[in-house]
Give the backbone structure.
Amino acid sequence: MAILEGGRIYPPGLPFPDIIHVEARDARSALWAMEEGLRCAALGAVVGELWGDPRALDFTATRRLAVAAERNGVAAWLVRFGATPNLSGARMRWRVTSAPSLANMFDPRAPGMAAWDAELFRARGVAPGRWAVVHDGEADHFHLVAAAGDRALAADAGERLSA
C-alpha cells in the first residue's frame, strides 16, 4: 500500500550511487529486510516505507532498527504513511507534510520551489521545533527556514540533517 500511495523512491534524488530495492508483501517482512540491511555496514542507508499501523511495528521492532543502525553506522529512515504517532525506539521523530510551493520568480501564477512543513516532535538531546523546508532544484539541496526565535534549533537540526 505504501508504494501505491507514495510511489517508489526516485534514485537520482538520493545521494547514494547504488540502490537495492526490496518490496515486501507485509510489514513484518519489510521490517526484517530493513534490519538485515542495517546490519550490512557496506550500505549507506536503509529506507523503509510502511502503510498505517501494522501490528508488527511495535516499540521492540523500532528499537531493534535503531540499535542495528547505530551499531553498524548505517542511516535508517522509516517512513510511515497514514499512520498515527505511537511509541517508537527512533532517536528522532519527524512529521512531514506538503506545503504550498514558493512563488515563481518569473511567473507569479506558476508554481515555484517545492516546500514541506517539517516538525521534529521527538528527539533525544534536541528540542522539538518546526521548519519550512524548501527544495532548490537548481542547486539540488534543501533549505531549512526556522520560525522566529528558533535560530539555534535550526542550525543544530541543519547540522544533523546534512550529516
The mean pLDDT is 81. The chain has two domains: 1-90, 91-163. The beta strands are 45-51, 75-81, 92-99, 115-123, 129-136, 141-146.
